[in-house]
Amino acid sequence: MRWPLPAALLLLAALPLLGAAVLSLGALFDADAWRALWQDPQGPRALALSLWTGLASTILAWWATRSLLAQGFVQRRLARVLRGLPPMLATPHAAFAIGLVFLLAPSGWVLRAVSPWLTGLGSPPPWPTTQDPWGLGLIAALALKETPFLLWTAATQMQRDDVRRRWRAEHDLAQTLGYAPRRAFDLVVWPQLAPRLIGPLVAVLAYGLTVVDMALVIGPASPPTLAVLAWQWLLDADPAANAQGAAAGGVLALAVAVSVALWRLVPARAALCARLDTGARGRLAAASRCGRGWGGALLIAVYGAVFAALALGSVAGVWPFPDLWPETLSTRAWASVWAGRGTVLTTLGLAAASAALALAWSVAWLETAPRRWNAGLRPLLYLPLVTPAVLWVVGLYGAALWLRIEGRWPALLAAHTLMAMPYVLLALEPAYLGFDPRHRAVSSSLGHGRARFLLLVKWPLLRRALAASAAVGFAVSVAQYLPTLYLGAGRWSTVTTEAVSLAAGGQRSLTSAYAGLQFALPLLGFALAAWVGRPRRFAPPPGAADGGTGDPARARAGPARAGVPGSAP
Amino acid sequence: MTLRVDIIALGNTQRTLLRGLRFEVPPGTVLTLMGPSGCGKSSVLAAIAGTLDSGAEDAEPLRLDGSIRLNGVDLGPRPTARRGVGLLFQDALLFPHLTVAENLLFAVPPGARASRRARVQQALQDAGLAGFGDRDPATLSGGQQARVAVMRALLAQPRALLLDEPFSKLDTALRSHFRAFVFDHIQAHGIPAVLVTHDRADVADPARVLELAGGGPYHAPTR
Question: In terms of CB atoms within 10 Å, which end of chain A has fewer, N or C?
Answer without folding.
Answer: N
